[in-house]
Amino acid sequence: MALSVDDVAQLARLARIELTPDECAALAPELEVILDSVAQVSGVAGEDVAPTSHPVPITNVFRTDEVRPSLSLEAALAGAPAVEQDRFRVPQILGEDA
Amino acid sequence: MDQLLTTNAAQLGAAIGAGTTSSEEVTRAHLDRVEAVDDTVNAFLHVAGDEAIAQARAVDAKIAAGEKLGPLAGVPLALKDILTWTKAPTTCASRILEGWIPPYDSGVTERLLAADIVILGKTNLDEFAMGSSTENSAYGPTRNPWATDRIPGGSGGGSAAALVAFEAPLSIGTDTGGSIRQPASVTGTVGIKPTYGGVSRYGLVSLASSLDQAGPCARSVLDAALLHEVIAGHDHRDSTSIDQAVPAVVDAARNGDVSGMKIGVVRELGGEGYNPGVQQRFDEAVALLTRLGAEVVEVSCPNFDHALAAYYLIQPSETSSNLAKFDAMRFGLRIGDDGTHSAEKVMAMTRGAGFGREVKRRIILGTYALSSGYYDAYYGTAQKIRTLITADFTAAFEQCDVLVSPTTPTTAFRIGERVNDPVAMYKADLCTIPSSMAGNAAASFPIGLAPEDGLPVGLQVMAPPMADDRLYRVGAAVEAALAEQWGGPLWQQITPLTTEGAQA
Description:
The structure holds two protein chains of two kinds. In chain A, 34% of the residues lie in helices and 4% in strands. Chain A is mainly alpha-helical. Chain A has a domain at 1-41: Histone, subunit A, CATH 1.10.20. In chain A, strand 1 and strand 2 (87-88) form a beta hairpin. In chain A, helix 1 (5-14) packs across helix 2. By secondary structure, chain B is an alpha/beta fold. Chain B has helices at 3-6, 9-18, 23-41, 49-64, 107-114, 157-164, 181-187, 221-231, 249-255, 276-291, 307-322, 343-354, 357-370, 376-399, 422-426, 433-438, 468-486, and strands spanning 44-47, 76-80, 118-123, 170-175, 190-193, 213-218, 262-266, 295-299, 402-406, 441-449, 456-463. An eleven-stranded mixed β-sheet of chain B has the order 1-3-2-4-6-5-10-11-9-7-8, sandwiched between helices. Chain B is globular and about 65 Å long. The mean pLDDT of chain B is 96. Chains A and B meet through helix 1 and helix 2 of A and helix 11, helix 12, helix 13, helix 14 and helix 15 of B.
């Protein structure tokens, strides 16, 4: 299982994690060792085995459609990094480097 | 050391209820203890002293007014810092949530407060519960009170260490691949992972949603059962919560009779790769169960050999998705918001600065495992192995009431020993992962010290889904027999921590 430093950098971009070149270089061999050790799963289960996404059987849970108390505006915004006009203020979404 | 610190929660609750001591006195004794030893242990990320005293006084007032309260009313508890509580920050031991005060209480927190349990503070963990040593905390490692150069297990190292540092008689842990059971094993305490869905996940910051489960931690089996009864039960805010009666765990803990029980020793979990002292204490525990009247048989669960590999695909995959919510927009850290960077850039800068090394490792691993072209080979195959593991359990439980194994292959390893070897670190969860994958109930109980290093060894007991009570029957039987043999519980053999420059 070969995972290059460039592969790690691309995965980090997809995961929206800024990594330094040093971090990418350190992560590549670590991830490779982990991937090698988990690769043993391939071939263990045949075509006929159904996948399990969840340990207990799940059924859809419904509730009546009625108004319930929820977080106040103040509580919802209390932990925000930036607030403006009772809303979450976010950085520009169409930046030059986007 | 103050005798209140070494008294079990059940007895403390009874004494507080009878008025022979007060919740405030008990709470103060534990807060003083935290102050005296936590510079060394680092079990707590946040101590809510004023809030705890206020809670304790409120309980004392209710008792004075003649209210009939629950068996743990007024007893202090340490809460793992991955469950929300509005009176303290919830950090998940990550820089990305440093100082974040959640706007609501978790389902577990609500039940603790409704049972008049006093919350002392929040305990340390591996960042976002990813790890087996509590070394991945952004706020420094927790030390094992048995030997302070050793790890206390993880991710719930803080919750386990607090019990044997006598900083709290009760704590709450969360278990995704063994984070309650492995710390219990290496600290000589009791840790229970209830059946998946048995305890609400509402307000438990998700690591891997299909695996995460909160549970009770204590120094005694009965204390764990009393706490289990408080926190378990259906919660409509968690769609995976089981809408059934809570198993009769307290009755089972008081009963502790294993005569006639069929106990299966899992062939795949033992032997090569296990420390001699771990294997020896485990074999002795099995012999003890036989003497107590259980019928012990060997069972084979061949797919358990693939559990670790499958887990380290499923867990990072779910994590990479769950941790996407830490995007610097609605809560937590934000880096680089200076008007020149886009939201996307700010997001990446924040996550780069806010997440630690192991969290980054697993998010990237999960991103890879879920990417198109690899999904079927990795995540899809791992999910099939999950099916095979569950089938192994189902077959084994047709022959046996419970299964047993060592909880983890070794005793507590040294701090720093495995930080640069992720695969060695992951092997600490070798025995605990199968029950996480299948969702059945499992626990770790102390069964002695390994002769070679004098460190605690745990017995893992696994029971079918919603048969959590069986764990307590076995745990109580072993606990009573060993206490008789040792002249008291295992924790009496610990070397007391030094308490320099503070009141003891």
